[in-house]
């Protein structure tokens, strides 16, 4: 193994992992503390059900052959801990008494995600509840505050919206959009693979979400089907911003889900938004092939395969899609699509996307290839697995609050 292919192991610090999902079959995010102060937490389609009405399609020019941006050659290791994003105040706007907890949608090390209904407007929301003590013990304070701060300023049709936050003496709460259609991951597992046009539709909407995040200097860092929800009409919503970070130049912390991590992240080299375009290529590959290109049961072996970047795109994947995948899953970031001189435009103008009218797609006034089955209307949760419920001590403000000062914006 050459030095460029080595998996770098860090001896100082500790390893941590966390999972918060609605399916035990999902991939678990992994994390590695580089320094103590910098840590990352860890239905099937057929020809009859597939809507071939491609109202989001038209002609686009071929991909431009442009020179590349060598910005990643910089040795800067700037890690911004104080965001420059405008701050939206929602502290004190809600309390647990404003909601009725209906059921659990997902569980994890830090807490739960509940389906709740507002006692005031009757609307349904997803409420993330994290235990302060576990956040502090796992050294996730900064990332929790970063997630709240980032979500407070995001407004995009393909990104879940955060409506507010609050806390009691034991927990912090985030009130989010409730997206009834479930995860793209579940649909992909039922379908095995997506037809080319279906994969293209979902990829195009994800691209617009990433383009928006990058315009705000936000690196998402955990793109995967598990973090893509489907609305009742079949559009995507990017969710779970626990890994997201505002990065103006570069950062270097190892975090993400093993199958989707870029090689420069594994090598603990300075990296930028280009890591999201690597993950975007992995997503397209998985939708079209049914598995990830570097799959293994061992995370360490996955890292080794990613570091070598040796993979094949099956022959049944159409040529334009193969070309795009190879341009995205590119070890050398100076040649990776999305990191060239024209940035995201090089991806949007690629032949695989030549039919997409991006303005029509962003408007959402188009037919989607699949609409989730929502039999009970608004508030239906049939697309999510059932979990054992517990007695929740939410709203307890009688016990001492040892950690509230660490979450001043909640």
From TrEMBL:
Q: Which reaction does it catalyse?
A: L-seryl-[protein] + ATP = O-phospho-L-seryl-[protein] + ADP + H(+); L-threonyl-[protein] + ATP = O-phospho-L-threonyl-[protein] + ADP + H(+)
GO CC entries: cAMP-dependent protein kinase complex; cytosol; nucleus
Q: Which Pfam families match?
A: Pkinase
Q: What is its EC number?
A: 2.7.11.11
- List all Polar residues biased stretches: 70-79
Which processes are annotated in GO (biological process)? filamentous growth; negative regulation of cytoplasmic mRNA processing body assembly; protein kinase A signaling; Ras protein signal transduction
Keyword Mitochondrion listed? The answer is no
Record-linked SUPFAM superfamilies: Protein kinase-like (PK-like)
Segments for region (Disordered): 1-23, 56-79
Instruction: Alphabetically list the UniProt keywords.
Output: ATP-binding, Kinase, Nucleotide-binding, Serine/threonine-protein kinase, Transferase
GO molecular function annotation: ATP binding; cAMP-dependent protein kinase activity
Q: Which CDD domains match?
A: STKc_PKA_like
The broad enzyme category this protein falls into is: transferase
What the record says about family reads: Belongs to the protein kinase superfamily. AGC Ser/Thr protein kinase family. cAMP subfamily.
UniProt protein name: cAMP-dependent protein kinase
Q: Which organism is it from?
A: Ogataea polymorpha
């Amino acid at each position: 193994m050459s030095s460029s292919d080595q998996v770098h192991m860090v001896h100082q610090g500790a390893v941590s992992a966390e999972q918060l999902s609605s399916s035990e079959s999902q991939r678990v995010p992994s994390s590695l503390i580089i320094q103590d102060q910098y840590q990352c937490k860890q239905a099937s389609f057929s020809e009859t059900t597939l809507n071939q009405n491609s109202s989001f399609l038209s002609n686009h020019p071929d991909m431009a052959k442009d020179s590349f941006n060598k910005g990643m050659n910089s040795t800067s290791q700037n890690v911004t801990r104080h965001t420059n994003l405008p701050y939206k105040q929602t502290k004190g706007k809600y309390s647990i008494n404003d909601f009725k907890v209906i059921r659990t949608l997902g569980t994890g090390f830090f807490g739960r995600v509940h389906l709740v209904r507002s006692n005031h407007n009757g609307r349904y929301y997803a409420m993330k509840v994290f235990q302060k003590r576990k956040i502090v013990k796992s050294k996730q304070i900064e990332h929790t505050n970063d997630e709240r701060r980032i979500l407070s300023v995001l407004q995009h049709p393909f990104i879940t919206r955060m409506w507010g936050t609050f806390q009691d003496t034991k927990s912090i709460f985030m009130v989010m959009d409730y997206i009834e259609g479930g995860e793209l991951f579940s649909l992909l597992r039922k379908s095995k693979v997506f037809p080319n046009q279906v994969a293209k539709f979902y990829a195009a909407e994800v691209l617009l979400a990433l383009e928006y995040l990058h315009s705000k200097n936000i690196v998402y860092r955990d793109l995967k089907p598990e973090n893509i929800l489907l609305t009742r009409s079949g559009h995507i919503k990017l969710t779970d911003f626990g890994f997201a970070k505002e990065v103006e130049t570069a950062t270097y912390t190892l975090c993400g889900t093993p199958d989707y991590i870029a090689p420069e992240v594994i090598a603990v080299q300075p990296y930028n938004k280009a890591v999201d375009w690597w993950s975007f290529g992995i997503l397209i590959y998985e939708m079209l092939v049914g598995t990830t290109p570097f799959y293994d049961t061992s995370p360490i072996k996955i890292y080794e395969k990613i570091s070598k970047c040796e993979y094949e795109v099956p022959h049944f994947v159409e040529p334009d899609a193969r070309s795009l995948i190879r341009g995205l899953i590119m070890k050398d970031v100076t040649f990776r699509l999305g990191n060239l001189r024209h940035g995201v435009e090089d991806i949007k103008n690629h032949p695989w996307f030549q039919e997409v009218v991006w303005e029509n797609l962003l408007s959402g006034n188009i037919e989607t290839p699949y609409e989730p089955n929502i039999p009970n209307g608004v508030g239906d949760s049939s697309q999510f697995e059932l979990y054992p419920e517990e007695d929740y001590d939410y709203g307890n403000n009688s016990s001492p609050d040892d950690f509230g000062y660490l979450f001043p914006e909640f």
